[in-house]
Write a structure and sequence with these properties.
This protein has about 140 residues and is mainly beta. The chain has one helix at about 5-15, and strands at about 20, 40-45, 50-60, 60-70, 85-95, 95-105, 115-120, 130-140.
């Protein structure tokens, strides 16, 4: 199940991250030359997390897909790290920057792996007015 964290938690919870910057239009000359036009693909591995994510924004429509693995799931709080693997997403919107996240917590969930494909604007709490992507990074979050 996808969990969203608010901007305050995002700022407070970021562990180790690496970032890739993308232009407003998400041009195909982004980080992955094989990505479709309007898309950015990123793969990363850090201590406690690994995954791949593709983010597409075209004509005001966004799509997020990929996978995420908590590589240190443990059996409970603090075992071995107590953290959740997290893709942190910083969207450009008509209202400014809005932070979003995708989590997998092996110590809470039945599986330390997650495959996802969704519309980030869907639902009552979805990110509205997406115009582009500021940043996406893999990290560790604590809830």
């Amino acid at each position: 199940m996808r969990r969203l964290l608010n901007a305050a938690l995002l700022t407070a919870l970021v562990g180790s991250t690496t970032a890739v910057m993308a232009p407003t239009a998400l041009a195909s000359s982004g980080p992955d030359a094989n990505a479709a036009p309007g898309c950015v693909t990123k793969s990363d591995t850090i201590e406690g997390a690994s995954g791949e994510i593709t983010i597409c924004v075209q004509n005001g429509v966004a799509r997020v897909s990929g996978n995420l693995t908590d590589t240190l799931p443990g059996s409970g709080f603090g075992e071995p790290d107590g953290g959740c693997a997290t893709w942190w997403i910083d969207w450009q919107t008509t209202r400014g920057s809005i932070n979003d996240s995708i989590l997998v917590c092996g110590h809470f969930q039945s599986s330390p792996e997650k495959t996802f494909d969704y519309d980030p604007s869907a639902g009552e709490h979805g990110v509205k007015g997406i115009t582009g992507l500021n940043e996406v990074s893999l990290g560790i979050g604590f809830i």
